[in-house]
Amino acid sequence: MTSVADEEWCVLTSLLPDGWQELARETGAMRRASGEIRSADTLLQVLLLHVATGLSLKQAATRAKVQGVAAITDVALLKRLRTSEAWLRELSKQMFERSRFLDDLSGLAGGRRLRAVDATTVQEPGATGTDWRVHYCIGLPGLDCDYYELTSVSGGETYKRLPVSPGDIVLGDRGYCHREGMAHVLEHRGDVVVRLNTGAVPLMQATDEACFDLLERLRTLSACSPAEWAVRFEAGKKLWPARLCAIRKSAEAAQIAKEKVLRDARRKGRKVKPETLEYAEYTLVITTLDREQFDSAKVLELYRARWQVELCFKRFKSLLQLGHLPKRSDASARAWIQGKLLTVLLVERLADEARFFSPWGYRLAMPQSLA
After folding, report:
1. Which of 352, 254, 243, 339 is nearest to 299 (CA)?
2. Strand runs (DSSP E) across the chain, as ranges?
3. Between β-strands 191-195 and 204-205, what pairing exists: parallel, antiparallel or unpaired?
4. How confident is the model at residue 366 (pLDDT cuts 50, 70, 90)?
5. Could you tell me the residue ranges of all domains in the chain?
């Protein structure tokens, strides 16, 4: 008789890409498989006990034994986690490619590497648990974690941490809108698309060092029509050219943004400046991309791509805050992060599938034509 746990596992694995078990062997996740870890099913169950539930390696190994999944030690589980990095990354990539978040990002980026950078705080369980900040970069649309760094909780968000290759397009929220960080990307021949932080990056005219009057320009915008202006910013005793792209929000979106500004100000005990509320009526993005290849509409679409996966990122960050980050090696930490990403994508897919759940608990296979 099939147990409830087996039935639920079948539902979960039905959400995975076709050929996911064969992929485990192709990527080396099943290399030197021994003991009770002799199938991709068993391996994934044990890995998810660790990365998806927040259990430590030792706790996950114990739970796996108690539940009759596999008898494995915490040391062996850590080794399996390391060798599963490529498998988890490829599963995440294929899951993301068919998720509702995906646009034609590769076409939008003109064949260049598109990367979204972010950071979150991880608090280890227990009274003596340490607070860490995980800085990571996710490639789009492949959803591969191509960089991570572990710092103390005081480690700030900055592009300067990120290794940049020529041609990279790096997307970031306003927390990454710092002059020195943007200059770092430019020095390595990359480009940025980042939400403008008006308080952190004073903008200058493109033709002289006069201050760029932002609100004066924004007030000329009509609804639904993006606009842009050539600007410069100073970093490292050098003036860097950039473009400011802007679009007026809908009345509803502007009201939501203003309420958030007021709510944050009340929480921090601060007064809100009138111009801050006025800025909330617009989406402001600063970029260093060439205008001939990326007009203002395309730049805003690139930023929207980053914003589109924000829900995925938020759930991912919530999961990162749950559990024990392996710190013994880069491979285990990257695999841990990839496992968290896969968990988020499974949750998203399960939520989508829930709309079609039937009284019998699963979808019927469509009849195949014999012709």
Report:
1. 243
2. 114-123, 131-140, 145-152, 169-172, 191-195, 204-205, 227-235, 238-248, 282-287
3. unpaired
4. very low
5. 4-97+327-356, 158-308
